[in-house]
Amino acid sequence: MAHIIVVGNEKGGSGKSTTSMHVATALARMGHAVGALDLDVRQRSFGRYLENRAAFQAREGFDLPMPVMAQLGEGPDPLTPALELLERQCDFILLDCPGSHTRLSQMAHAVADTLITPLNDSFIDFDLLARISPDGDILGPSIYAEMVWNARQMRAQAGAGAIDWLVLRNRLGTQQMHNKRKVGGALASLSKRIGFRVAPGFSERVIFRELFPRGLTLLDMKDVGVETLSMSHIAARQELRDLIGELRLPEVAVSF
What we know:
seven-stranded parallel sheet, DNA_Partitioning_ATPase
């Protein structure tokens, strides 16, 4: 069966679609068959990113690695038919969840083999995972953390195996600021209590906003004629390489 990767976070603006697009296309570039589903039926940022990629290739004549984009089905369970269709042809399926609590998001978390939760590196986003006192003490898990716990329980009851949960610290500052250390310490403490791993994600870079209209990723630059990469491009590629390695996906050896 395909390995299902879910990118989930109930707050917008954390980099879910950027993370989804780069993980999906990186796996496709390494030769894996990758399926994609955008579960955010309102904003559809991931879906539009892939549509932009298809349109750019058709317009410019490029042939870039491309995930297979499926559409949600109809009825009370629109997710299962789409997953069944993709599982017949894919090694990995990536689901991008909306930045809100929805039934579709709950269903996606229950089928996740790997869960990626991008967070902006602040206590505002930390609140997604746990309630914290003014003094920095962890008071208890958030509604989102409880949803992940329920998804784990459902999978255990079904004999479906554990969810490997990775929390990404996106938009990390370049300086070792006091707040950055406090967030890191709180995440390390919470990770032991509710069972996730922590890894650095993507820094804040203009390049990500520039790539979206053409549906491109950091790995496409030379394919579309950019021979000389800036230091920012090179650093961002290394961040992506580190992320793919940190995911510890089955039969994936980082090769870009």
